[in-house]
Every structure is written in C-alpha cells, then in structure tokens.
C-alpha cells in the first residue's frame, strides 16, 4: 500500500506539463535515433548527457527513460522492415518480422511490436513497483556458476531452434565466439586475435558486429540478387492486426514479461538473453510451426514484450543496488553520479520524488509510445516502397556512419566491411546469423563467469554445478539437447503400437 501511495505521488510529478513534455521529447528522440542502424539508446543517452546539465534531475531522468523505451522500439522498426537492427535487443525481431514485411505484412509486424512493447512495459513496470525489493534480494544471491549456466542455456537454446540443422547453428555460434575473443584477455592481459594491432586491443564493438552481420550482409545479399532481376514492389498491407492475429499474439504479449523482467533484473543480464529465450519458447508452443522462419507473428510479439519488460527489470538493479545490467543503465548510472546521486537501497528514502516520478513516467512513456507509433506503423512500412538500390545504398551509408560513430576509427569501417562479407557468406551457405550474434554478445561474459566459478572452486569442474539453480538450468539444457532423440523414440513407439494394433 505504501508503494501505491508513493506511485500516486510519482504520477503527480510525472504529469506536470513540463515533465510530460520531456517524456514526449524522450520517446520521439529515442524512436528516431533507434531507427538509425548502429545508434542505439545507450549512445543516444550518452550524447544527450551534456544537454541535460541545466535540467532538473527529475526531468532529465524522465527524458532518459523515454529515450530508453523509444530507442528499443525504433531499433525493432528497422529490424522488422530492413533486417537491420538498431541495437542488439532488436536482433530477434528481424527473424520473423522481416519475412512478414517482405510478404506485405510490415505494418502488422510493427503493430504487434508496438503492442508488445506496451504490454511488456506496463507489466514490467507494475512488477518493478511491486517486486523490486524481492527481485533485488534474489539477484544478489545469484553467483558466477548460475550466470554461466544461464548463458550456456542461451547458447544451446538458440542454436537448437534456428537454421536448417544444429551443425549450422553451432558453426554460426563458433563464428560469434571467435569474434568475441578479439582483444585483450581481461584477466591475463594477453592479446588474442589482434594480429599486432593496438586498435583491436579493446575488441570489436558489438554495434559494429551487429550492423555488419545484419545491415551490410543483408544489403550485399540483396544486391547480389538484384543483378539477376528487378525486385518486385512490396505491398504495405493493412495497418492493424486481425482477429486471428490477436488470438495468436495476446498470450506471447503476456508470456514475454515473465521471461524479460527477471532477466533484466539480474546483474549482467539485459534484453538479449530474454528475447532469445522468448523466441525459443514461442516457437516451441506455437501451433503454426510451418510459418516459423517465414513470418510468424508470435516471433515478433513475444520477444518485443520480453525486451520491454527487461528494461523495467534493469531499473530494479540500477535503483535498488546501483548495479547497471545494460549499457543504457551504465550511462544512466553515470548521469545519477553527475547529479551527485548514488543509486542504492537508500535512494528510495533520500530521493523519493525523483525515483517515483521516474517510475510513473515509465507508464506515461508507454502510453505515448503506443499512441505515437501505432498510427505511424503504415508510414514506417512505406519505407519498403523505396526502390531497392536507393534503400540499401541509404542503409549502407547510415550503417557506416553508425559504425564510425562508435570509436571514430577508420579501422571500424574496414571491420564493418569484413564482418559484412562474413554475413554475406553465412547467408550463402545457410548459416543462421543469430547464433553468431549471441556468441559475440554473451561469449566474453560467459568466459568471465566461467573463470570466476572455477577460481572459487580452485579449478574443480564441480564448482560449475554447486548450486540448485545451476543444476536446474543444466537439466533444462540436457532436455533441450536430448529432445530430438526423445521425440524420435516417442514417434517410433507410437508407430510400433499402431502396427501391433493393426496386426491384431
């Protein structure tokens, strides 16, 4: 009840005309910047930090929250329409969203994404209000073996359901893990795969890899096929979801937050793992298996809802523990410190107006995001009517600008082209791109958690399975790996039973 009263006070702060204006500005800026390949919400918040020096702290963080959610939705817009994720959390949206767009259902995919963001954000923020202390306490108890088990689960789950074979999925994962090895070893300082280049000592930025594999790889792939014949114009489609699609999406919208919120609250989590796991879950539960890979609307609705809910979960660790679990949270932590505010258990007591105003503004931002972007879905979808040569030339330009903006190094553009060629080759030989992406994102973190777990157990492998949580996760992994064989045995058993019944 005390939380509810505090939230009502927060709405009093968030709904003042000036703060409402900053929330709208944040949502618009976040969406616009999220649409640009390679420039995600973290970079947007970082670029806008100096602009907020003269603002009241509450107004500044309300705007930052709007940028966060708007950037996530903007990233999914280009992911769906152009197969070019604006940020890593939008990678999964491309798998089913882009085939939907190519078949003339781009506006429906965007509508499913917008509604998913709204549902996930609302449920996640309600959970933030109700469960923040409990989730924070659970997050503190999770150790290195548990983190490593979760990341292995993400690796296995994604490679098991994508691509024409598991071998291709694991080959793609290996490519991603190899790219993730580039740079200095965090513990020994040893150079790995840098070829003597000092610029590669810090590794290859995830943004460059994402933009290279998706944007450049897709543009080159389309260009290679355009030479054989002109591309047919793609219809925009109707700008709403039909009854059949609503029946298929409402459950993924509600399931997404159950996966996204807890993972967002876990330190070293973020939106990547829950979006991958949501996709896997929806594919397993779907009754329309023949549509997956060709434009299943559940594959957009579930992951987008999970991504939005994970953003609310991220704020749990940031506000209650002072632990940033994503790049955006890290930038927001720097912004808190810029104002002389230290997030942690005492923040709710020392800065109640700021905290509850920020949480209330999340509800306001969700409504603004839905109101602004649902009518714009058919407008965004008309991007597909731009002639392909001009469209992909523009993608290449913005991809190059986004990659160069990461570090300001000419080498980044060379890496972008090389990784783009790798993406082209992966498409040519049927390797799914997503396992490579998750390998790049989670590979370094998984290595770090593996080493920590082994250090804690003096090098004993049993240190990886010394908690009930990790044992449970490995049991799930074993089930995923064994499922194809179990399925064959079940089918054979049923066939044998039918044959025996027929013979009788």
Structure description:
The chain has about 500 residues and is mainly α. The protein has one domain (about 1-490). It has helices at about 1-15, 15-35, 40-50, 55-80, 95-140, 145-160, 165-180, 205-225, 245-265, 270-285, 300-320, 325-340, 345-350, 350-380, 390-405, 410-430, 435-455, 470-504; strands at about 185, 190. It has a two-stranded antiparallel sheet. A hairpin with a 6-residue loop joins strand 1 and strand 2. The longest helix has about 50 residues, at about 95-140.
Biggest sheet strand order reads 1-2
Based on Cα principal axes, name the global outline. Answer: globular
Structural class: mainly alpha
Main sheet properties: 2 strands, antiparallel
Mean pLDDT: 77
Question: H/E element string?
Answer: HHHHHHHEEHHHHHHHHHHH
Helix content: over 70%
Total number of domains: 1
Distance between the termini: 67 Å
Organism: Streptomyces lycii
Domain DUF112: 20-438
Keywords: Membrane, Transmembrane, Transmembrane helix
Transmembrane segments: 20-49, 61-82, 118-140, 147-164, 170-188, 200-223, 315-336, 356-377, 389-407, 463-486
């Amino acid at each position: 009840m005390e939380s509810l009263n505090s939230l009502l006070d927060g709405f009093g702060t968030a709904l003042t005309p000036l703060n409402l204006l900053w929330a709208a500005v944040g949502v618009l800026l976040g969406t616009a910047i999220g649409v640009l390949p390679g420039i995600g919400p973290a970079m947007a918040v970082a670029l806008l930090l100096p602009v907020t020096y003269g603002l009241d702290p509450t107004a500044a963080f309300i705007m930052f929250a709007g940028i966060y959610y708007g950037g996530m939705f903007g990233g999914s817009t280009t992911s769906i329409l152009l197969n070019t994720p604006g940020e890593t959390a939008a990678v999964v949206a491309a798998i089913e969203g882009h085939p939907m767009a190519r078949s003339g259902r781009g506006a429906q995919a965007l509508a499913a994404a917008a509604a998913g963001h709204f549902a996930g954000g609302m449920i996640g923020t309600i959970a933030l209000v109700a469960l923040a202390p409990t989730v924070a306490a659970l997050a503190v108890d999770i150790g290195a073996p548990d983190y490593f088990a979760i990341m292995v689960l993400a690796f296995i789950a994604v490679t098991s359901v994508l691509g024409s074979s598991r071998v291709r999925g694991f080959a793609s994962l290996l490519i991603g893990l190899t790219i993730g090895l580039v740079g200095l070893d965090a513990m020994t300082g040893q150079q790995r795969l840098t070829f003597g280049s000092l610029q590669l000592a810090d590794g290859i930025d995830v943004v460059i890899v994402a933009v290279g594999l998706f944007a450049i790889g897709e543009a080159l792939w389309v260009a290679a096929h355009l030479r054989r014949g002109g591309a047919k114009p793609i219809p925009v489609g109707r700008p709403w979801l039909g009854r059949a699609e609503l029946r298929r999406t409402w459950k993924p919208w509600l399931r997404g937050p159950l996966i996204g919120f807890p993972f967002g609250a876990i330190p070293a989590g973020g939106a990547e793992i829950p979006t991958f796991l949501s996709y896997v879950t929806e594919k397993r539960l779907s009754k329309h298996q023949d549509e997956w890979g060709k434009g299943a609307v559940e594959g957009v609705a579930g992951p987008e809802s999970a991504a939005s809910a994970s953003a609310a979960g991220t704020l749990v660790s940031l506000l209650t523990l002072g632990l940033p679990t994503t790049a955006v949270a890290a930038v927001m932590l720097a912004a808190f410190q810029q104002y002389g505010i230290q997030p942690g258990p005492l923040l709710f007591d020392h800065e109640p107006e700021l905290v509850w105003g920020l949480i209330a503004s999340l509800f306001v931002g969700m409504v603004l995001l839905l109101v602004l972007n649902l009518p714009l879905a058919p407008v965004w979808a008309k991007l597909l009517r731009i002639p392909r040569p001009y469209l992909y030339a523009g993608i290449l330009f913005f991809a190059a600008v986004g990659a160069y903006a990461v570090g300001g190094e000419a080498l980044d553009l060379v890496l972008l082209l090389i990784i783009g060629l790798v993406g082209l080759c992966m498409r040519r030989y049927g390797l799914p791109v997503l396992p490579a992406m998750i390998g790049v994102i989670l590979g370094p973190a998984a290595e770090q958690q593996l080493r920590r777990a082994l250090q804690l157990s003096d090098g004993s492998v049993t240190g990886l399975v010394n908690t009930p949580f990790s044992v449970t996760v490995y049991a799930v992994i074993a089930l995923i790996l064994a499922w194809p064989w179990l399925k064959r045995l079940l089918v054979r058993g049923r066939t044998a039973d039918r044959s025996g019944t027929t013979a009788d």
